[in-house]
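How it folds
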Amino acid sequence: MKKIMLLVSFSILALTACSKPNTDTQNINQAPEQTATQVSENTTTHSQITPTGDQAEHSLDWAGEYKGVFPCADCEGIETELELKTDKTYELTEEYLGKGTGNEFKVKGTFSFDANHPSMISLDKAGENRKFFIGENFAEARDRDTGEASNSKLNYKLQKQMQ
């Protein structure tokens, strides 16, 4: 008799340990509706917060002056200044170093963020449709056609000037 009682006790203990506790039947019955409502609310909130399209435009402090010296095949370098303004206009100044006077070129125009590459801007025709990757406190010149970085070890980055 003791063996049967012991066997029954262990069986009950084993079955009880394997089941989920049912402490609040009211919450369990409401869980599917609440979960669906929460997912719906979270989806709505997420789509309202997440900007569509240009992530760099909304997540980086991209406006400002970027300066640096690009490599040059037949001069000491190209001193380059790119000013990006909040109204999506720019001023690009390039001075060919070691070439004497009259080797400074300045263009003004508009730019746009690339929908396919959210961290990329494209200058207008006045800026020869140049592309720049905008990062945290830098702008890097990219290939005009593909937007890819140069395979060269030469420096094509402009550093943002902190004011």
Q: What stands out?
A: The first strand starts at residue 64 and ends at 70. Confidence is low (pLDDT under 50) at residues 23-54.
